[in-house]
Amino acid sequence: MAEVLAHYLNLKRETATRPKELAARAENLLAYWGDKTLDDITSATCAEYVKRRGTSNGSRRELEDLRAACRQAIADNVTRQSVTVTLPPKAKGRVKHLERSTLAKLIWAAYRKRGSFRGAPNKRKPTVHIARFTLAAVYTGSRSARVWQASFFKEEGRPYIDLDAGVFYRAWEGEKVAANKQAPPIRLPARLLAHMRRWHRMGARYVAEYNGQPADPKRAFRNLVDDVLGEDAGGIVRHTLRHTAATWLMQAATDKWEASGYLGMTLETLEKTYGHHHPDHQASVGAAFTTGRAGRKAR
Question: What is the residue range of 19's domain?
């Protein structure tokens, strides 16, 4: 198994979107499977691995890597032995969204927070990048990494925001995007574009900029949510902003085809996950009962 995983990692070294995360998952796999052979892969050993890892979502993702490594080994004649990797059930995704008042509360808190030195407040604004990230994420419905990495200048390997044309190129040129992680270019809403042009005039090079560099706001966003919302902060993560964008678009009766293209998700996913928020959702069914047509044969 160590040989199979090594072969897979060697092939993925140059093409992995998140190589550090892949390496971390591989370490977890090797700790259990490294001294085993393909014969040892059974439903029982897969279940034992999940139990030892203690996290269903994390172990499922790691077992998906294991399955991919075995398939790659077969394709490249490293082995001819076919095995079945048994995955735990997929956890139900979180689709919590924010109300406009809650979002406004978070953004204003991030803008207004001031730094301090020896207990005395100063003019420094340590969380302004969180306010900008939050605003851009909910207006574009983009995944968090696409937002905080985005630049107002063309840089290799980085999403680009064309402030003149008002277009957000969420995937950098030449990037291979997974089928379930689409990131098509979008035209920025006028209100967000005005904000971004102002940020740029004030000297910003990136959307989520801290000390002149793009900053991953994961921890700072978590702290902000906990400080502002307290007991109501449960389940709110950065990805909640994407859920919020999709929900708001459906509540506003936006055309589903345009919304799915804007969000970079399939129409099927949009309807299945967020369609019930659309005012026209199952409208014909309700009308059938309201008008009394239900139960009567159509002439």
Answer: 2-75
Predicted TM-score (pTM) of this structure: 0.77
C-alpha–C-alpha distance, residues 232 and 70, integer Å: 44
Residue 94 has pLDDT above 70, yes or no: no
Question: Do 113 and 126 contact (CB within 8 A), yes or no?
Answer: yes
Q: What DSSP string describes 104-124?
A: HHHHHHHHH---EETTEE-S-
Q: Which residues contact 13 (CB under 8 A, 6 or more apart)?
A: 19
- Asked if residue 109 and residue 18 are part of one domain, the reply reads no
Query: Quick check: 18 pLDDT over 90?
Result: no
* Domain count along the chain: 2
User: Which uninterrupted H or E stretch holds 213?
Assistant: strand 213-214
Residues 250 and 165 in one domain: yes
Q: Say yes or no: 147 and 37 in one domain.
A: no
* pLDDT of 288 higher than 80: no
CATH number, residue 217: 1.10.443.10
The answer to whether 263 and 249 are in contact (CB under 8 A) is: yes
Q: Are 259 and 249 in contact (CB under 8 A)?
A: yes
The pLDDT, as a whole number, for residue 217 is 92
Inside any domain, residue 290: no
Name the β-bridge partners of 161.
Answer: 168
Let me know if residue 295 belongs to a domain.
no
